[in-house]
Design goal:
The complex is a heterodimer of chains A (about 280) and B (about 425).
Chain A lengths: L3 H18 L21 H34 L21 H21 L1 H8 L11 E6 L2 E6 L12 E4 L1 E5 L4 E7 L4 E5 L4 E5 L5 E5 L5 E7 L12 E6 L2 H15 L18
Parallel strand pairs in A: 1-5, 4-10
Antiparallel strand pairs in A: 1-2, 2-3, 5-8, 6-7, 6-9, 9-10
Helix pairs in contact in A: 1-2
Chain B lengths: L9 H11 L31 H15 L29 E4 L2 E4 L5 H8 L1 H4 L38 H10 L15 H30 L10 H18 L15 H11 L9 H5 L13 H9 L6 H6 L3 H9 L24 H10 L15 H13 L12 H9 L1
Antiparallel strand pairs in B: 1-2
The chains are: A alpha+beta (about 280), B mainly alpha (about 425).
Chain lengths: ~280, ~425
């Protein structure tokens, strides 16, 4: 009956195989762009992924070691019967090994302490208000059931004035510039999630929370709500457009402002940004 | 698209389709809900309560024209739907086409499928605004079946232009529960949804027209609702939709650039200080907070509408004192839902914040609501002054805070 252990070995091998395969499949790996599945577009994303990989190696190593021990023990100590069909070796009971228990408590505790200390700077860079960039606010983003309302400061650079630009589910920023947004919620808790930039932050009613991120590839990305906020939660999806240059962003903003200022039907169309939608 | 979305487990997906998306778990077959006048007496409106034969004829006509149930769509001759990729009018409504050789798969999801996924939970299967989530949102979802829409570019009471519906689906209605679908649907999908909404509208309007026509007919008359009468009714319904594009109101005078003078002129118009004696403040309030005296007090309104079980709103209305109840009944929209004037001190505009949107609201009023048309009572330049004032007010609350302004407005209204 010792060959039963091979079933367990197979399950472990399958799991390890899945992780070994994952980095080569964009669908299995962490979300990145199609053109460069191995490249993380944001600075914080690269740090966070590095932490992910460290944790994956650590847990992977422990997993392989424990599975090997499990399979070996199953194989080595499978019950054996003598000629009369009775167990060849009676089971022996013992109280346990304090030394072993101490070892397998201290090693994981050490690993956890290491991780806790090692990730501190990344956490601080991504979340601490003191680390917020001293740049003008790109936009004020308010979650509501069920959409993201975006308010850009407009030409005067101040949010809350008459020249603000209003969009819904449409966030635009410039490549390689740190974007700072002020996150709000007007009803329940939502969560602002940029999967490709590895940014996730809850939007809490009554609070204005600064969130910052960057992106080193122009293109169109996804914004999602990552906190179940009601029956229309799935509707809270937005487009994030990263412009190649600031001039391009400003041209987009000017076109949108022209449309927002439309006073007659026949005026020239101001929607130049529609062209890049596929 | 840079973002990759691809089914990972093909097997799982197909199983999910078979298990999760079939209609097997429905309690009954899909059926359109009939308008009340079909079977019941409706006060002050046409109905077929006592005309069973005409009612059956009306049902048969509807089934023939638009299909017997939501899963089988018929496209009547001359219906105001757009063409699909192959030039078939109404092809965007469904995902299969019935042909002589059997069903033909169409290369799109179809308006019905998209509507079921994204819109039905509020607007309901028949477009009656009675979906499962409808009781929990305010303002309530639109009932499409009368062909009336609030935020349009066409004259008060006219059918909306397709562009109006497109804008509503794409950008949502700010300050209501209508979300923006631009990031959820492609342009082509939005067109399919628009066609289906138009379909539900013209179907509902035809139903109403049949009820009205049948109401004046004799139940024993074998010629009641005969083919040429029905053809006239439907062509009248379709005609209104086809005319909408030509009726779009384009301000003949460009907007007056916003200036302190223009804003002040707009404020004076708003407060009824000019010879036109506009009564904006009567509804929108002397401070623009939507708390004018002609309407139910906002605190009372909020208590009735938002505090408690939405299905028990009538009971809360019944507890109000007599004059408030009377006022409540007067301040309902065309669909019987309570109305409240916009609070102009916050920059939230349901019908859009572009000057042209506000021009439409002021010049031609809001279809189905109590905002009246102001053109030609005031001229285009005056409308633009009010637009400039409304756009400036949230950022310059002092416009209505100056000493004397409120007192004067009170005096004017008396």
């Amino acid at each position: 009956m010792r060959y039963w252990s091979l079933i367990f070995a197979l399950a472990a091998a399958f799991s390890v195989g899945a992780f070994a395969y994952a980095p080569f499949s964009p669908d299995w790996w962490l979300p990145n762009t199609v053109a460069e599945p191995g490249h993380v577009v944001s600075k914080a994303g690269r740090e966070i992924d590095a932490l992910f990989i460290i944790i994956l190696w650590l847990t992977g190593g422990v997993f392989v070691a424990t599975q090997a021990a499990l399979v070996w023990a199953q194989f080595r100590y499978a019950d054996r019967l003598d000629a009369e069909g009775k167990p060849a070796r009676p089971a022996r009971y013992f109280h346990g090994s304090q030394r072993l228990e101490v070892i397998w408590t201290i090693i994981p505790a050490g690993i956890l302490v290491f991780l806790a200390l090692y990730q501190m700077s990344t956490w601080a860079d991504v979340k601490f208000r003191s680390a917020a960039p001293r740049t003008p606010v790109l936009a004020e983003l308010t979650g509501r059931q069920f959409q993201w309302m975006v308010k850009y400061p407009g030409p005067d650079g101040k949010v809350g004035t008459a020249d603000d630009l209003f969009t819904v589910n449409d966030l635009h920023l410039v490549k390689d510039e740190t974007a700072l947004i002020h996150l709000k919620s007007s009803d329940v808790i939502h969560s602002f999630f940029l999967p490709q930039m590895r940014i996730k932050q809850d939007a809490v009613p009554g609070m204005t929370i600064p969130v910052w991120f960057d992106c080193d590839r122009a293109g169109r990305y996804e914004l999602a709500c990552a906190e179940l906020c009601g029956w229309g939660h799935y509707k809270m999806r937005g487009d994030v457009v990263v412009h190649e240059t600031r001039a391009e962003f400003e041209a987009w903003q000017a076109a949108k402002l022209a449309e927002q200022g439309r006073s007659q039907v026949g005026e020239p169309e101001g929607e130049t940004s529609e062209g890049d939608r596929q | 698209m840079i973002v990759r979305r691809r089914p990972v487990f093909g097997l799982w997906i197909s199983l999910a389709l078979a298990a999760g998306c079939s209609d097997a778990d429905l309690t009954g077959p899909l059926a359109y809900e009939e308008q009340p006048g079909m079977t019941r007496e409706v006060d002050g409106k046409s109905h077929l309560a006592d005309k069973p034969k005409i009612r059956e004829k009306a049902r048969a006509v509807l089934a023939k024209l638009y299909g017997p149930n939501p899963k089988e769509i018929h496209v009547p001759e001359g219906a105001p739907f757009s063409k699909d990729e192959s030039g078939t009018v109404g092809g965007l409504l469904a995902n299969h086409l019935r042909t002589a050789e059997g069903p033909k798969r169409l290369p799109h999801a179809g308006g019905f499928a998209l509507y079921r996924r994204h819109c039905l939970h509020c607007h309901g299967l028949s477009g009656a605004g009675d979906g499962p989530t409808a009781p929990f949102v305010f303002p309530p979802p639109r009932d499409f079946r009368r062909g009336l829409y609030k935020f349009t570019s066409t004259p008060n009471g006219a059918r909306p232009d397709r562009d109006d519906l497109r804008r509503t689906v794409r950008d949502g209605l700010h300050g209501t529960s209508m979300p923006a679908f631009e990031a959820l649907l492609t342009k082509e999908e939005i067109e399919q949804v628009l066609d289906y909404v138009t379909f539900l509208s013209v179907r509902g309007e035809t139903e109403l027209a049949l009820i009205e026509e049948g109401f004046i007919g004799d139940d024993e008359d074998p010629d009641a609702l005969e083919d040429d009468v029905v053809a006239d009714l439907t062509s009248a319904v379709f005609g209104k939709w086809e005319d909408a594009a030509d009726k779009v109101v384009d301000p003949p005078v460009a907007r007056t650039p916003s200036s302190p003078e223009s804003v002040r002129r707009g404020r004076d118009l708003f407060l009824g200080r000019t010879k036109e004696k506009l009564e904006c403040a009567g509804c929108h309030g002397v401070k623009g907070r939507g708390d004018g005296k002609s309407f139910v007090d906002p605190d009372v309104f909020n208590r009735v509408v938002f505090r408690g079980d939405p299905s028990k709103m009538a009971e809360r209305v019944a507890q109000l004192d007599e004059p408030t109840q009377e006022l409540w009944k007067q301040k309902l929209d065309e669909w019987g839902n309570p109305l409240r004037p916009a609070n102009l001190t916050v920059p939230v505009y349901k019908g859009g914040r572009r000057p042209i949107d506000l021009y439409w609201r002021i010049a031609k009023g809001i279809t189905g609501a109590q905002m009246p048309a102001h053109y030609p009572g005031i001229d285009h330049a005056q409308i633009w002054d009010i637009v400039n004032f409304v756009l400036a007010l949230p950022y310059q609350p002092e416009l209505l805070e100056e000493p004397g302004v409120a007192a004067e407005a009170e005096a004017v209204r008396r």
